[in-house]
Amino acid sequence: MPKIIDFTLTNEEVKALDRAIRSDKRTGVARRATALRMLHLGHKPPAVAEAVSVSLPSVYGWHARFKAGGVKGLGNEEKRPRKRKVTPAYLAALDETLAQEPEAYGYDFTIWTRERLRDHLEQETGIRLSLNWLAVLMQERGYVYRRPKHDVSHRQDEAAKISAQATLEELKKTSSVTISSSSLWTKRA
User: Fold this and answer.
1) Residue 183 pLDDT class (50, 70, 90 cuts)
2) Do the strands 177-178 and 187-188 form a parallel or antiparallel pair, or are they unpaired?
């Protein structure tokens, strides 16, 4: 059989709730105090929950908090700041990793993406961050993401490059094409 809860309050408790309803600045306290005052006046918990637009367990929870800590117990609990996962060792590994090319770590790719960097740092430090948090962290440390400029000049045949340049210069001198700077389309002269 469910436990029957007595919602009647003492005169001091009623006065404390009335003061909270009128003047408490904390978020939600006036609403919670109103709900408790309604319970004291004989309203049933389901009706009170509907009147203040909360769930029935919330009404019971507010009553228990009030009985345990008075009006002070009706305030929102302070949230403790989350402990940061990032350690100084992680930051040092991030800086060291970005100072090197991926090939230095034995990878067969040449560009660090956020995904690759996150996965590598997880292997090195055991700490896995979300991609967004890694981006924020990198921005805080002054790193900027840029699209890579693909350069294949090291694979070009130097003699063929010089020959092609000379041919291009000759074509420019004898060309019968009028070049317009306003369009991609050109017209023969």
Assistant:
1) very low
2) antiparallel
At position 53, the amino acid (one-letter code) is S
pLDDT tens across 8-23, in order?
889 999 999 999 889 8
- Rg of the chain over Cα atoms, rounded to whole angstroms, equals 35
Length reported for the chain: 189
pLDDT of res. 62: 92
Q: How far from the centroid of its chain's Cα atoms is residue 167's Cα? A: 55
- Are 35 and 52 a contacting pair, CB within 8 Å? yes
Describe the crossing of helices 56-69 and 29-40 by its angle, rounded to 10 degrees: 90
> Tens of pLDDT along 165-182?
999 888 888 766 555 555
Whether residue 178 contacts residue 189, with contact meaning beta carbons closer than 8 Å, is answered with yes
Closest by CA position to 17, among listed 72, 76, 78: 72
- For 105, phi then psi, to 5°, come to -100, 5
The residues pairing with 117 across neighbouring beta strands, listed in sequence order, are: none
Supply the pTM of this predicted model: 0.45
Tokens describing residue 33:
């105090």
CB 58 within 8 A of CB 49: yes
β-bridge partners, 188? 177
Q: How many CA atoms within 13 Å lie on the side-chain side of 61?
A: 9
- The Cα–Cα gap between 158 and 13 comes to 92
